[in-house]
Design brief:
With 271 residues, the chain is an alpha/beta fold. It has one domain: NAD(P)-binding Rossmann-like Domain (Rossmann fold, 3-Layer(aba) Sandwich). It contains 7 helices and 9 strands. It has a 7-stranded parallel sheet, with helices on both faces. It has a two-stranded parallel ribbon with strand order 7-8. Helix 1 links the parallel strand 1 and strand 2. Helix 1 packs across helix 7, helix 3 packs parallel to helix 4 and helix 4 packs parallel to helix 5.
Length: 271
């Protein structure tokens, strides 16, 4: 991994479980001090314990990504706790009703608004309040966690797709306006992901993994689903010296899904 994370101060929103926790694990294992955040205090305390195993430097701060005052308090608490900030990973986003699923003419405005708050306003507020500390750090990084629906349409993904598309635009805007001040900003565009071997987070017992595999086999070029570790690897690459000249871009981590047309195989049954 190298030592490029040693001494770095990081915030991972939505870092108490899932992909966020996988990212935080890599950061802490590489020598960074990290704050993870989320709504669930019980999950946050458990994640903090996991990250501290082996002497890792991590702490949990509860926050609500949909409330500006809560986001501001998170950033202030993080900077105060870590003594500054070098890395911001915007992983927290919509869940449940806040996905804003439905046809445009049927989607309730309150559902759409909830999705914008969680998926776009929240990351915007995180960047807004973190940027002064990131600029002060001299050389810093923002990584926004996006999704393939930001770039390709999917049925009834109205709110979520629009929020992630906005996040892509925010990524480019920050890279443009703050690059000369030492801030690099990129997005990781994720396809279908689930826990892999060694991941702390797990899926519910009733999750239909077989159905997910069947869908993924048709929609990706590699015929398999990605793991949380794949997402974390991409984030670490964008933080590494090897990515020092990369900013304002979106890195697909999707098994080739964005590059693949969803056409049937017209050669089936023909020699």
């Amino acid at each position: 991994m190298g030592d490029f994370l040693k001494g770095k101060r990081a915030l991972v929103t939505g870092g108490a479980s899932g992909i966020g926790l996988a990212i935080a694990e890599r950061l802490v294992a590489g020598g960074a001090s990290a704050v993870i955040s989320g709504r669930n205090g019980t999950a946050g305390a458990a994640a903090e314990t996991v990250l501290r195993r082996g002497g890792g430097d991590a702490r949990f701060i509860a926050f609500d990504v949909t409330e500006e005052a809560s986001v501001r308090a998170l950033i202030e608490g993080t900077v105060d706790s870590l003594g500054g900030l070098d890395i911001l990973v915007n992983n927290a986003g919509p869940n449940g009703r806040a996905f804003g699923l439905g046809l445009v003419h049927q989607l309730p405005s309150e559902d759409f608004d909830a999705c914008m708050k969680a998926g776009l306003y929240g990351p915007f507020w995180c960047c807004k309040y973190a940027l002064p500390a990131l600029i002060e750090a001299g050389q810093s990084w923002i990584v926004n966690i996006s999704a393939v629906v930001a770039l390709r349409a999917a049925p009834k993904m109205t709110g979520y797709a629009i929020a992630k598309s906005g996040l892509e635009a925010l990524t480019r805007q920050i890279a443009n306006d703050y690059g000369a001040r030492g801030v690099r900003c990129n997005a990781v565009v994720l396809g279908t992901m689930r826990p892999g071997a060694g991941d702390v987070s797990t899926l519910p017992d009733d999750f239909d993994a077989a159905a997910l595999d069947r869908v993924t086999a048709r929609t990706t070029m590699v015929g398999q689903v990605g793991s949380y570790a794949d997402a974390a690897d991409a984030v670490l690459f964008l933080l590494s010296p090897g990515a020092r000249f990369i900013t304002g871009t979106s890195l697909p981590v999707d098994g080739g899904a964005l590059a693949k047309l969803g056409y049937p195989d017209y050669t089936e049954g023909h020699d």
